[in-house]
Amino acid sequence: MHTIESAYIISFSLLVMLFLISGTVKIHNQITGTQRTELREEIDAHTKNSEKSFQPELFIRSATIFFQNEDPADGQ
């Protein structure tokens, strides 16, 4: 009788452990999958043939042209 009960306990314990491991693997794949897609989008956004959504060099150029007549020492 004790062997049947111990077999049930061991099989139930293994089932719970496998369930937890599979859930952890699924969550890990979701996290790394989104990181991979975001990383791939970022890499693709900086290739020579594609246009970046935010171009800091144009922003800096327009900001310096816009503020070139103002003197920062005036305290405005």
Summarize the structure in short.
This protein is an all-alpha fold. Helix content is 72%, strand content 0%. The chain has a domain at 27-46 and 53-65.
Give a written overview of the molecule.
The structure is a single chain. The chain contains 2 helices and no strands. It starts with a helix and ends in a 10-residue tail after the last helix. It has helices spanning 2-45, 56-66. The longest helix has 44 residues, at 2-45. It is 72% helix and 0% strand. The chain is rod-shaped. The chain has a domain at 27-46 and 53-65. By secondary structure, it is mainly alpha-helical.
Write the layout of secondary structure elements.
Elements: H1 2-45, H2 56-66
Report the sheet-strand fraction: under 5%
The count of β-strands is 0
- Which percent bin holds the helix content? over 70%
Uncertain spans: none
Label the structural class: mainly alpha
Features:
2 helices; mainly alpha; 76 residues
